[in-house]
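Minutes, project huddle
Topic: does the predicted pose make sense with adenosine monophosphate bound?
PN asked that the exact inputs be recorded in the minutes so nobody has to dig through chat later. Recorded below.
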Amino acid sequence: MTVVVRTRADLRAVLADVPRPVGLVPTMGWLHDGHTSLIERARAESATVVVSIFVNPRQFGESTDFTGYPRSEARDLAVCEAAGVDLVFVPSVDEIYPPGFDTTVTVGAIAGPLEGAARPGHFQGVATVVAILFALVGADRAYFGAKDAQQVRVIRRMALDLALPTEVVALPTVREADGLAMSSRNARLSTDARAAAPVVHRALDAARARYAAGERSAEALRAAMRDVLVGASLAEVDYVSVADDATLDELDVVDRPALLSLAVRFGDVRLIDNEPLP
Ligand code: AMP
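Predicted holo structure (tokens), as shared on screen:
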């Protein structure tokens, strides 16, 4: 039986005497198999599983992305029920940011490049809401997807620096059969854009193939990704990156663990994906 709570107070009350360990899966809803993979791992490792569903206005730049973000509480609750979630926290914006709210968590260098550069303020918004969720839930572990690779690094940094007691667990990206990384935003792709979107993952595959064949020039690998994307219909490249896996600083030579990542627009839907090297 899945319990739904909507306020900070109710959440604390319900969590006061649940069995531990508690596993938290923070989401923005419109749940798909990527989210379910996190919930399943949490279920396997926790006595109590909490899923939060909150489309966090503070992490959105473009208001059309926020207002157009797909939402269906009934659909999400059915997914949570089926996955054996104990508690779903569905707060309003005012419940998370009550009147007078005036604190922001700012993460440093790791939040600077890539998504941080493309979406100013995004990671402050993410770090702030995740800090609130960690504090409210007091989870032993929280589960995040490697699809949002920089987000995982930002949250790990924050948890370490602020001595937050929640362990951050990252799990692999779940993909559609054609390679497209599952994302709630995929629901907003037009039919033509959905057909074109697997090119994002093919670009990563192309760079990985070049790397496997011995290429170590980061610029050559970026070019391999761009070459695949240039020819694709509807795809507008935001960035392609070959970066140090730990710092996310761009590399010249891939002589250490690296992260291939990219952001591509299809109309007003912006998709991101990544793969590690090697
Ligand atoms: P979101 O609802 O998009 O904010 O995502 C909530 C959590 O699910 C984040 O930790 C995401 O990284 C993770 N997630 C989203 N898509 C996927 C996916 N395709 N595979 C694995 N995890 C994912």
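Observations noted during the meeting:
- The longest helix spans residues 122-137.
- Residues 27-28, 34-35, 37-38, 144-145, 147-148, 173-174, 181-184 surround adenosine monophosphate (CB under 6 Å).
No decisions taken; revisit at the next huddle.
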